[in-house]
Write a structure and sequence with these properties.
Elements (H helix, E strand, L loop, with lengths): L12 H16 L15 E6 L5 H12 L3 E6 L11 H11 L3 E6 L4 H6 L5 E7 L5 H15 L6 E5 L6 H12 L3 E5 L15 E3 L2 H4 L5 E4 L15 H8 L3 H4 L7 E3 L12 H4 L6 H22 L2
Parallel strand pairs: 1-2, 1-3, 3-4, 5-6, 5-8, 6-7, 8-9
Helix pairs in contact: 1-5, 1-11, 2-11, 5-6, 5-11
Length: 304
């Protein structure tokens, strides 16, 4: 298994499949009376979060604790970071504490790569700027496989704010590695420079893509990262690129709807679609724990 998980480019098809297969076994422990495994007893996992996150931080914390690891939650707010401590100084502190793994979320793209050069332990990227979010891509692929039985050959539409989405970047490359076909659907203003080089098709017409899609992944419009007007209005965005009940009826009967959360209900996705039988949104949260257990197990304990 790889030493660090900084990008989905660290994962070849066999390694990614091993994570998904291991996550399936980890999911089976959720039904046991005693959910804990002793695999990482005596290991220390640090959650180093420079950005707010509920789902990802709690998911990693639950995953580490179910593997019997000691968990330290480090928030930038109220810490030495708020007093001006650099990432490198924080890294040296974690090194001195003997952290076996550091799960980092940071607003700066590339921060996990820098951290990996400063500490001896394993570094797992839990989201860096607008760059990547590899464990989200893994849990999304796991959710597709759990619902549809496979990833290879699926037609996946990723819709919305691709420009600011680390989830989109990681999903495009991981799904390509696993044999799926991805189409990005967004207004031209919300597509990044260089998207033509990504292993995905691009469309500006959601209605044209839906009838042939096995999976539709709606992305959150990230208002906090926007400094300019990328579309005329929220109402206009919802009209062109929102998934409402009428559009959902154009999907094949077996198709599923995904969203990495948190959602802007009524903007990129209608409440009745988010809460429908097609939706995997709640499952994605539960699957995140199993997938992150698998990542920690394989990187810290599986081959030890």
């Amino acid at each position: 298994m790889i030493r660090h998980l900084l990008s989905v480019s660290d994962l070849d098809r066999d390694t990614a499949t091993a994570v998904l297969d291991t996550a399936t076994r980890m999911a089976d422990t959720a039904g046991r009376e005693v959910k804990k495994l002793p695999t990482l007893r005596g290991r220390t996992v640090v959650n180093l979060f420079y950005e707010d996150s509920t789902r990802t931080r709690i998911s990693f914390e639950a995953a580490a604790k179910r593997l019997s690891a000691d968990v330290i939650n480090f928030s930038a707010k109220g810490s030495s970071v708020s007093k001006g401590e650099s990432l490198k100084d924080t890294a040296l502190t974690l090194q001195a504490m003997g952290a076996d793994a550091v799960v980092i979320r940071h607003s700066a793209s590339g921060a996990p790569h820098r951290l990996a050069g400063w500490i001896d332990g394993t570094v797992i990227n839990a989201g860096d700027g607008t760059h990547e979010h590899p464990t989200q891509a893994l849990l999304d692929a796991y959710s597709m496989r759990a619902r549809l039985g496979r990833v290879a050959g699926l037609k996946v539409a990723i819709v919305g704010d691709v420009l600011h989405s680390r989830v989109a970047r990681s999903n495009v490359h991981l799904l390509h590695t696993l044999g799926a076909h991805v189409t990005l659907v967004a207004p031209p203003t919300l597509l990044p420079v260089g998207v033509d080089a990504w292993p995905a098709d691009v469309s500006f017409d959601l209605d044209a893509v839906l009838p042939s899609s096995d999976v539709v992944m709606m992305l959150r419009v990230q208002r906090e990262r926007m400094t300019d007007s990328y579309f005329p209005s929220e109402r206009e965005y919802a009209r062109r690129y929102g998934l409402d009940a009428v559009r959902a009826r154009a999907l094949p009967d077996h198709a599923i709807v995904m969203h990495p959360g948190p959602m802007n209900r009524g903007m990129e996705i209608a409440p009745e679609v988010a809460d429908s039988a097609r939706s995997t949104i709640v499952e994605q949260v539960a699957n995140g724990v199993s997938v992150r257990m698998a990542v920690l197990y394989l990187m810290l304990g599986g081959l030890a």
